[in-house]
Design goal:
By secondary structure, this protein is an alpha/beta fold. Among the domains are: 92 residues, Arginyl tRNA synthetase N-terminal domain (Gyrase A, domain 2); 66 residues, no CATH class; 130 residues, Isoleucyl-tRNA Synthetase, Domain 1, CATH 1.10.730. Helix 4 packs across helix 16, helix 16 runs parallel beside helix 18 and helix 17 runs antiparallel to helix 18. The chain is globular and about 85 Å long. The protein binds one RNA strand of 77 nucleotides through helix 2, helix 6, helix 15, helix 16 and helix 17.
RNA sequence: GACUCCAUAGCUCAGCUGGAUAGAGCAGCCGCCUUCUAAGCGGCAGGUCGGAGGUUCGAAUCCUCCUGGAGUCGCCA
């Protein structure tokens, strides 16, 4: 139940009715009407810009428009008053019964309150993590992982049909290096002295067990083969081991992908060369031509050679320059594979694609969105979400890189230290495109300075109050009707209900903007409202939740507490953070 | 050189896709806190929304230019 949406429809209907009556033109575009909470609650419960956005088309001043509209608004059930404010805002005062009915809806819908159908079951592909299978995940990967996972959950909650996907970069030079690194470890496992790992290969200890497993399985049979023979075998074994490790890292954060898509499968996996087919298709549609590029700007590229190459007309679709699809040795560029990959998403039924990338890929957005536009005839839409860097701190001091597994702090180390909930919540308590300071000491601090604790504690406190309530009263049913809820009249109680009423529109806005952090901030606000309400009981015992001699009031208040608890739980569940019943 | 992102209170950041007197948390100051779970609650103070133009009824939000910071640029992945 989204009261803002409901009243938006009411207001639109009122405008249409005036159109039919000839009071206003009947051609007004009521879709532009917005009903939202006023900035200042003193103004009322709802505010609408209807008069201002439609005045011009109606060819009358906004305030005159409002004067015509208001009598009509007053006919709407639940509207107590409607006033013109400022340049032509209409502030609406609602009967508290509307808000009581919101509470009632929470109890009826339970954890589904806030769930929306605004996504209209449209297919969305969320591709995230896609870390190269060359080692364990680090903290930066973790941010993209949590962001993508929470965004996917949010979209599901908002009524989209979501697939979580991981693109395995298992076809480039990096995985060849991985294979060679694993080969060294294999020889090491056979008892050879391998010395230092050469520059350009992966030195991390995590390849030691891979080498050992290879030695166990193949004995020394691979050692004397040529690289052309052993590389495919060892490379694949190493990739599989790395992917297994990455899956485990993700599982620690409770993240699971529906699809793992192999880059290699596009050109070498089956009986069909997807990338070649793509280039043929693009050539037929004149998206590709043979031409020359100007030398790259900025840092000079030493081995730059001016030559004719196979180029995609990216600049015709919004990119800065055209982009090569073939390397000089005739093999496909990464970009060519990526276009084929995104086309495959489209062909699999995803007109809406979301990619979650790290900050270092920002320069890649234009060419990819332009490519998606080109190969889908403008039918496919790609939104790239960039997750900025994470600065790992401990009490304000930058954390030194660990040498244990290469040259970075692994995600696993961080989760082991502070826990899944802290990692997930803090990764989401910031806009994705802003850099994030993650302080290992602060996120486990049990104080209000720590938003994770603050929100979880609000949930635990709700649960505690409900336990107390059940102890003080005999068994009761919280799903009381809206009439019984009319006992809730205090301004601080109504303020909490107002906040609850906003949850559905926050969900929809966050989902359509692809911004899960809005849920995290909302939960913090709701927690704050609740802590505040709880404390009112200190100064004024009449405002406590459990009132000894007033069973009905107690039940109404516990219904409010339970609604807060449910919305907190449901929001936390979208973020993938647990909602504890006690904090001990 | 070009492009992307960022610039909002002393600090860290929100700002609901263009709305009213720009908000929160820290830090500072003042008060309260033997409670339904203590780890908090209330209040005060704090701002030329980096700067200058523009678009319009209306701009922190959209456009242009400038300044400052981060990142990217390739036949790398």
């Amino acid at each position: 139940m989204n009261i803002f949406e409901i009243f938006q429809n009411h207001v639109a209907e009122a405008v249409s009715a005036l159109g039919r009556d000839g009071v206003l033109p009947d051609t007004l575009d009521t879709k532009r009407i917005i009903v939202e909470p006023p900035r200042d609650p003193f103004h009322g419960d709802l505010a609408t810009n209807a008069a201002m956005v439609l005045a011009k088309d109606a060819q009358i001043p906004p305030r005159s428009f409002a004067e015509k509209l208001i009598p009509r608004l007053l006919l709407i059930d639940g509207v107590l008053a409607a006033d013109i404010a400022g340049p032509g805002f209409i502030n609406i005062k609602l009967d508290p019964k509307i808000f009581h009915s919101v509470l009632h809806a929470v109890h009826q819908q339970g954890n589904d309150f806030g769930r929306s159908t605004s996504g209209k079951a449209r297919n969305v592909n969320v591709e995230f993590v896609s870390a190269n299978p060359t080692g364990p995940m680090h903290v930066g990967h973790g941010r993209g992982a949590v962001f993508g996972d929470a965004l996917a959950s949010l979209l599901i909650f908002a009524g989209y049909n979501v697939t979580r996907e991981y693109y395995i970069n298992d076809a480039g030079a990096q995985v060849d290096s991985l294979g060679r690194s694993a080969f060294l470890r294999y020889r090491e496992a056979l008892g050879e002295e391998i010395g230092a790992i050469p520059e350009g290969l992966y030195p991390g200890d995590y390849l030691v067990p891979v080498g050992k497993a290879l030695a166990d399985h193949y004995g020394s049979s691979l050692r004397d083969q040529s690289e052309a023979e052993w590389l495919p075998i060892i490379r694949q074994a190493a990739i599989d081991a790395m992917m297994e490790m990455i899956r485990e890292d993700l599982a620690v954060l409770d993240i699971r992908h529906d699809v793992f898509f192999s880059e290699r499968s596009l050109s070498q996996g089956g009986n069909r060369d997807e990338i070649g087919a793509l280039i043929t298709d693009m050539t037929a549609r004149d998206l590709v031509y043979q031409g020359r590029l100007p030398p790259p700007k900025g840092a000079p590229v030493e081995d730059w050679e001016d030559r004719e190459q196979t180029l995609f007309r990216a600049s015709a679709y919004g990119d800065d320059v055209d982009r090569p699809l073939l390397k000089s040795d005739g093999s496909y560029t990464y970009f060519a594979a990526d276009i084929a990959y995104h086309r495959s998403k489209y062909l699999r039924g995803f007109a809406t694609m979301i990619d979650v990338w790290g900050a270092d890929h920002g320069g890649y957005i234009k060419r990819m969105t332009s490519a998606v536009k080109a190969v889908t005839d403008g039918m496919g839409e790609l939104d790239v979400k960039i997750c900025q860097l994470v600065r790992l701190l401990r009490n304000g001091e930058q954390v030194k890189m660990s040498k244990r597994s290469g040259d970075f702090v692994t995600l696993r180390e961080v989760v082991d230290e502070v826990g899944r909930d802290a990692v997930r919540f803090m990764m989401l308590y910031r806009k994705n495109d802003a850099t994030l300071d993650f302080d290992l000491a602060k996120v486990i601090d049990q104080s209000k300075d720590n938003p994770v604790f603050y929100v979880q504690y609000a949930h635990a406190r709700c649960a505690s109050v409900l336990r107390q309530g059940h102890a003080a009263q005999s068994a009761f049913d919280l799903a009381v009707d809206a009439g019984a809820l009319s006992k809730l009249t205090d301004a601080s109680e109504l303020a909490v209900i107002h906040r609850i009423a906003q949850f559905p529109r926050i969900v929809e806005a966050a989902a359509s903007a692809h911004e899960p952090h809005r849920i995290a901030f909302y939960l913090h606000d709701l927690a704050s409202d609740f802590h505040s309400l709880w404390n009112r009981g200190k100064d004024n015992p009449d405002l406590r939740f459990v009132i000894e001699n007033d069973r009905n009031l107690t039940i109404a208040r516990l219904a409010l507490v339970d609604a807060v608890r449910r919305v907190l739980a449901s929001g936390l569940s979208v973020l993938g953070v647990s909602a504890p019943n006690e904090m001990r």
